[in-house]
Each structure stands twice: as structure tokens, then as C-alpha cells.
User: Fold this.
Amino acid sequence: MATLETSSSSTLKLPDALPLDSGQTLENVEIAYETYGEMAADKSNIVLIFHALTMDQYVASPHPITGKPGWWSESVGPGKTIDTDRFHVICANVIGGCMGSTGPSSLDGEGQPYAMRFPVITIRDMVRAQVALLDHLGIGTLHAVIGGSMGGMLALSLAANYPERAARVIGIATTARHSAQNIAFHEVGRQAIMADPNWRKGEYYADGISPDAGLAVARMAAHITYLSEAGLTEKFGRRLQDRKAISFGFDADFQIESYLRHQGISFTSRFDANSYLYITRAMDYFDLAEEHGGRLADAFAGASARFCLISFDTDWLYPTAETRNVVHALNAAAAPVSFVELSAPYGHDSFLLDVPALDSVIKGFLE
Amino acid sequence: MATLETSSSSTLKLPDALPLDSGQTLENVEIAYETYGEMAADKSNIVLIFHALTMDQYVASPHPITGKPGWWSESVGPGKTIDTDRFHVICANVIGGCMGSTGPSSLDGEGQPYAMRFPVITIRDMVRAQVALLDHLGIGTLHAVIGGSMGGMLALSLAANYPERAARVIGIATTARHSAQNIAFHEVGRQAIMADPNWRKGEYYADGISPDAGLAVARMAAHITYLSEAGLTEKFGRRLQDRKAISFGFDADFQIESYLRHQGISFTSRFDANSYLYITRAMDYFDLAEEHGGRLADAFAGASARFCLISFDTDWLYPTAETRNVVHALNAAAAPVSFVELSAPYGHDSFLLDVPALDSVIKGFLE
Assistant:
């Protein structure tokens, strides 16, 4: 195995139309993906990483818009937890996204952006597109598939629908279905976007005036759900932002306000509002049990992979109970499963942050 | 004591300018209030109820806009928990509100709506206005003061700043300070309102075109925080709204979406967006310890009342730990305090819903 790190960006145009769960098909689908590390001749060393809602394929390479390091570059790279000296890592932008894979901002057959004429997709549709990518690359069974949050939903969906495609499945801070509360938060975000007059029913690409204010509010609301109450208190508390006393006004007096506003505004520079609508919708529709006749264990009836499920004790977006639900189903399906709830103060975002125990669990499971 | 229920609506114009914590003063302050039951000749039977953020003085009488029963009419009335055959109940709209007390939609000295020229107020300012009302009514010491959520903050503030004015203080589902997470959710709501082009820096009263879309989003986000995850799952789960299958679209497929949209839209018919900004700001500024030198016990140093604090086990907006914090401070100040955490499935909203144990605790404490 080579020790040189290699990172390359590619875009595949799928040769065939992609069938969708809605019954529609999507033509001329493009999948933008990054790879790291060398592929073994027998293709036995491949790790597919699925990204979360607002992430993308730049898992360990600088983001082309923000210039920031890849979102999981702490854990993916030569000698790291997901060791690119050993593994060939693939990460593709989900369809519906806005970083090169076909989504609402892509051009349709007439050369116009799809906008809201893009078909509503599901998590399984996203997986189907990436299985087509694996087919194209001649990859049969992955050494492992890994994903956190929405990426974990894709990992579970792949395990359920394409059981032969992965020997190991790692799901982090995830769930087998979106709860009413999960749907509720997403609906607030969608309504914030759609309430922005610049949204114009999604037709904002021509003049480039996009519904940034609405998207920023959506991001702010979502961001709160990614952090634990205790983490927020520790990080921000009631500390003031660059002032000694409250201003008796509506400026961002508190650090938490300033932080949230920054999160909201900066998000709009790298994310498409319509993509946010479509991807959140796919997540809300996700219910792996319902998709397999109502019983989650049946979703995993054909599973041959080993599973590793990881939750965080302070994650209230996808709390440990949701992971336990998956573990029980895997037990009922007699699938081998490791499950650990890790203690970390950061809430749902723990899966993206420096939690050493997470890295050791993943490293051990990938052996 | 009369057994006839009497309900009357009054508005008091304060004779003096109201000093505010900001250092400003507010002239010509009006306080709109409702009363129920007869006042005893010696004024010994008076219960003051403080309302929550989006509530008002119509605690047990029909709301003049919605026509719905008063927000606590289950518990306030003849023979009820807060028995208006025995007690004279007063509930006043907070200043900053929009149901008759002076707020941003009120006219200033030049006959123009204040809009954002209304001064930023605090919880203590709201209390100060209502103490002026008590002064006007010749009421010295209340039999009890009661409030839930923001109303509980007012009750604690009254106990801290006007300790001689209440013999009993009941705080329900409340806190002595707004946490970073509390501030964060309010900031999302404010940003949603301010992002609405109809907000126009608050100057929307002239043409009556108000920032309803932004206010609805703010209400939706806040509403999620009022309900428990388990309660949402029980009440809505992933049940669909008037359809047998998902629509693969952006309609309100799920009942929770339909419910939230309805909550958002209906709120705009009875609430002023600028009032929402000012009242949430007052709540975010609330930190009873900081107001009294940094130590919460010092806030209650002069307290002579008996206290009753009630929290709910599923309330994640103002969780039991916040109430415990108040109880510990009262203990340190050697104030007599009863504390109970009630089990109820509804989250924060439990204080407004049918929780029989809540009624029996209040009834017992009022004896």
C-alpha cells in the first residue's frame, strides 16, 4: 500500500436514468466525489463515507468555497483513524445537494435550473445514486460504509437495501426514522426559507438574489439542535459579546447571539436554499421500518454485514434511544452489532468534533 | 364573600412616568387588566397572576380576538383551584405587550406608534408597572402572586424587588435566568421577524401590512420548545395529515407540520411582532442573580413570603435544574419554600394543560 496521500476530485455522469422512490426518474445524473488513498488491486480496501445534511464530499480536503479543512480531516488521512495509507476512501455529494452532484440548482434537459421542478427524493434515492457510482467503479463489497447523522441514515439504508455491498456498517449519532420533533425543526427551517420573498418559489437562480435571510434563520434554528444545552452553557453561558453591559437594544449583546448570527450568514455562502428544502424533506421522509413493511428488524433481514452503532449521551436530536431502537432491530435480525453510547459534552455535533473515544471505536471496528 | 362570578376589564393610566432599568422613563403608561371575584373589604384576598410571553390578561375570560376561553380558565373561576368565590384575582397585560398595556404598538406623545422607539424593557420593569397598579388600587400585600414560565420570572422578580408585596409566591415551570439555549431560540425568532421585509425596522403599523410570515416562523420555532419530544411523538408521531401516503412534495404531509403551520399563522392574528421582539428581549436579559450582585440567594435576602416552586419532568425549556437553582437560593436565604417536580408528558406547556397534581399543589399552597 502506498503511503503517499492522494486526493482527487471526480464527477461521474451516470450512464442510465436513476429510478426514484417517487416513481419518477432522474436523467443525466452527475455524482461529484472525492477519493483519498490508493485503491488496492483487489478493491478490498474501500471505505465509503456518507456526509451529513449540510456537509459534502470534501471530507478531508479543503472546501473549495470556504477554504476550510475537510469536515472530517481530523479523522481521515494518512495514519489517522480512517487511515488513507491503508484505505481508499470515497465520499460523494448526495443527489439533491449543491456541491456538484445533481440537485435543484443543476440544469435540466432544457438547460434551465431545476429549482422546484427537481423531483422530491429520499434517503434511499441518495443511496441508489451512490451504488450506481460503486457499480461504475467496479466496486462490489465495501470494506466499510460510515456515516454520521444523515450519513448514518444512508449507511443504514445501504445496509438494508444493498446488504451485499458493505462488510462493515458504522452509524454515528443517527436514527432509523425522523421523529415528530425532528420533522418539526426541519419544517421551521423550510418555512423560514419559503417565507423569504427572495425565494420566489425556488426560481432565484437567474439573478443570483437568493433567499439568504430565510436560509440563515433555518440554519440558526437547526444549529441549536446540534448543540447540547450544557455545551451551550459552557461555551457561551450568558457572556456578553465585546461589551461590559447589556445594550438595552437588539444588537447581539450575548455571545450566543453573535455566534448564531454568524453561523446563519456564513452558511448561505456555501449552501443552496432549495437543496436545504430537498435534503431536509428526504430526511423527514426517512423511516426504514415503514419502508420494509413496518418492522425495523425486517429491514435488516438480509444483512450480512457487521454493524457498529455509536450514540452520544448529550445528543438530543438523535438521542441514544433512537440508536438503541436500531440495535434491537439488528439483534432481532441476528446481525452482529456493536453498540456504544459515548460521553461527550457537545450534543449531536460530537460526531464532528474531537472525541477520542469515537476514533478508537471506529479504528477498532475497521480492523 | 360573594359567590357571584364577576369579571371586569379595566385600563389604568399611571399618574407618574415609569422609571425603567435602562435609565429611560416611560410616560403615560397604561395598564390593561382583568379582575375576577370580589375584593374583600380588607383587601386580604387578592391573587395576582402574571402571564407568560404570548399570553395576556384574559386569564379566565374569553379572548377578545380569538373568542377562545381564557388561557387558565380551567383553574381560575368559582369553585376552581384559584377560587374566585374566595379570591379577588387580578391579571394585567405586561408593558411591552399588545393587548392594551403600553407597548411598541401604542402611540407615543406625538400620536405615532412607538414601534422600535419603544424603550427596551426588563422583567423588573414589567413588575414595576404592575406594582404601580397595586399602589393605585390601594393593595399592600397580596395573598399570593402566581406565574408560569415568564410569569414565574415576574413572580420571582416581585419577590426579590418588592418582598413586602406578596405573602405567597408561586413559580411554575420557570427560571431565575435565561440560559444560552433559551436566548438562542429567542434570537432565532427575532431574526425571523427582522428578516421579513414587511417588518421594515418595526414601522409597519401605518399600512397594517405586518411581518406575519416572520412572526409565524418565530412562533413555530418557539412552539417546539414548549412541547416534549415524547409528547410530540405521542400526539403526532409520523402520522400523515389527511392522506394515506407521503406526497413527494412540500405540502404539510405530516400532522406535526400542519399543526405547526397552524400555530404559526393563527398566532399572527392576535400578537404584535414588535411586542414579540421586546418581550423576548426582556426574558433574555433576565438574570435575577446578576441583578443582585451575582449571588441568587442575595436576591431573596429580604424575602418574607412563603415560596412554592413547581417544575415538570419533561420541560426542557426551563428544566427542573433551573427550579432547583432557585430553591437552593431560597434555602440559602432561609426563606420557606416548597418544591415539587411534577410528572407530566406535555413538556413546558404542562403549566397550561390539565395536570391535576398541579392544581392540588396550588390549591393547598393558597390555603
Q: What stands out?
A: Residues 51 and 151 of chain A are 5 Å apart (CA to CA).
